[in-house]
Predict the structure.
Amino acid sequence: MPFPFRARLSGLSNVTAVTGLGTVLVKPVLSATGQNAAVQLAQPKFLDMSGAQKRKMARLAVSSILIMADLTAYLTSYCLLISYLSGTSENVLPERVFMLAALAAVVLNALAGLYPGYRLHEHEHLHRRATAFIKIALLSAIGALLLPDGQGGLSNIVLFLGLGLIFQLAFHRGARSWCRRLDIWGERAVILGERDQLSKLMTYFNDRWQFGIKPELSSADASVPSADTPSIALVAGELSTTLADLPTLRRKFGEVILLCDTPDLKINGLQPADARGEIGLQLAAREDLANPRLAHRILDLAIAVPALIVLAPFILVAAAAIYAIDPGPVFFRHTREGLSGKPLRILKLRTMYTDAEKRLDTLLRTNPAIKAEWETSFKLKKDPRILPFIGHALRSSSFDELPQLANVIFGEMAIVGPRPFPDYHLKAMDGKFREKRRAITPGLTGLWQVSARSDADIKQQQQLDDFYIDNRSLWFDLHILIRTIPAVCRRNGAY
């Protein structure tokens, strides 16, 4: 049976949900009208937030404490080094050199995912910190060779970083213990697997709390969203069954982790090295940035505002050409589906005759070949509705979409994301995928626009957008932006 967890939770009953990986016990759940309701009313308002918000706040707090611990380790190293060098004839480097080295180490640690560093084996923590140390030491060596009298300070920097690395290991352990006492360390995770493995895995992760996993054996029904539902699923079971149920799991959980074998337990036949020193192979993408939406928003504004200022005169010239060929409104707003399914009115330059809808209705009624082409991709290669010359030029260059930079500035759209489609286009797509699409802000350009443009049929459009949503990141967006320019210049598949 697949993974939807069809168990009904009511009253104080214990129920069992049977999955493709085995039987999963479900904990008792109090009725909303029972004792839990009274407790919820008594909770402070700051606790009245979604599970995702609580998780982000806890991760931010833990990361801040760990960063402070690392900075304290380098400060301790600096104090000891200054005390040692003060009694020798060696030159003491300026404080700013040590400060820059320490900040560089913290930045590299952050990029390596060490804040908060959940789900990493202890040897992997050491590996990533040592890698940061080696990178900075190499850069310092290069600087020492290039700068006059720099070689005398190289040994001091290496000694400073080496002492800092040693102190980090101790301070980091203390900081994690403190976070655990504050009850902000770790994230709740549901364990899915065979019955005989569940209790062992529960004990394993409770004893090794440093992994940042708070194991549970239950989850709410996937069809009933809950702020109290863990967003992580730890899967222990047969690999073939796991992959078969993966689409359902990814819709239910923010992260799905296929557990690797441990020294004590044989789980899936995967070794930790297969997952770069993590406890398992991650099958669902997660955001590594503390606030990825803010980073995407900053990128959007940094591109949209100057681009609209530079392109405004060209947009006005195109608008004048449109009016000269077919008098009427040169801009139009078309209602599309935006974030969370809210109506979005995108702004475009008009590239069709003012009676374009009537012309399309006539074509679809009288020409079966055109109707079949339209139902395949909702595009016509030889569309008689398009204005001569200016209409084709604007559409082939995608210049007609540029007024949507205003939608980006107002926060209704992003520079990169799934294109907002009209309702008739969305109805041809899978219902579950359409719901998934609503979770992402629509974009001015996207993966299928730079991959296949208008040549993609509905199935391929859905596949490309599905891949983008699952793997979305700031770097992926930059990659798509870079590919957009040559795709527009080639004009392949745009009509």
Observations:
- The radius of gyration is 28 Å.
- The first helix runs from residue 35 to 42.
- Residues 1-48, 220-225 have pLDDT under 50 and may be disordered.
- The longest strand covers residues 187-193.
